[in-house]
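Task 17 of the worksheet. Students: predict the tertiary structure of the chain below and write it out as structure tokens. Keep your answer in the requested format; marks are given for formatting as well as content.
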Amino acid sequence: ILFPVPETFSASLKLLPKNAEDFYPDPNGQNAILKKTNSQGWYLTLLNLTANQEEVLLQEKDFAKKTKADWLDWRWSPDGQKAIVSLGLAEKEVFSMIDLGQRPARISSLDYLSLNQSFLFDPENSSRIFWLKENNLWQANLNNKTSSRVLSNVLSFTLSNQKVAYLDEKGFLYQADAANWPAIKPLNSKVLEVSVETGYRISLLRNQIYLGDGQVLWRWNPGNDNLEILRNNTQNWQISPDGQSLADSNNGEIWLFSLKDSLEQPPKKAGDKALLVRFSEKIDQLFWWDSHHLIFVLGSNIKIIETDERDRPNITNLVSLESPILFLNENDQKNIF
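Model answer:
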């Protein structure tokens, strides 16, 4: 579920029909795609969140006339004019582009691409996507249906705010402008020991770059051109939008770590840590709502908690859903799905 801003979140919940199985508001918070099911299979509707008007957009048979199509995902482009749908057809994952600028919405097969779920839209050009396959980074122009390999020996990459960062198999981290890359010179002067079998995650936030491998979290230090260990034994880490704090969940606990000195009450020094809350249940997805609140999943509940640990923190239960899932829009590092 995508809730771009708190106002849209609240409005979306009020408009959400009871029979909607999946809900995908666009990046602008103006429209939403709802997945529903009837006797003919699943179908998609477009809901105008402002006018509260709904129209049928597409049906399962539009994608597969003679076989069953298993629903997997809907991914909006940054401008909200296009989307990429992934479906399961004959035990194979297939991708299609949807052009919502036309009625009926136009479906274009992406079978000419060896696409997978690692793909990201170019934040500045919704007709261009990037994805990683077998450690090769590819790009495609969805308008003229061309694709090319950008880089080889890449373990991980991310795009955010007109910047791209990637880690290669030699253990070097690079950053460049999305319009002018690949980069020539690595950021780190000291090689990081890496493994092609490990899943790495890169996060870009303003001038800060973070890299995690599921256990260790590094931060690039521009002062000495090296990757410094920020945390050990951390998996579900998230950096606050203002870059001041790190949140980490461990089973039923949420911990906060100060990344910089702060004079806000209560004052903090870089390296300070505090237990924010402890639950008997395991905490699943955890993200920053803003720089002072976290959103997370606990069982069937989506909750928000303030990060002032001086007293018992305020916790709000936003909604209860069956098997709720949240994840971050990697294109802008702020929208929550």
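Marker's comment: The helical segments are 6-15, 60-63. The longest strand covers residues 125-133.
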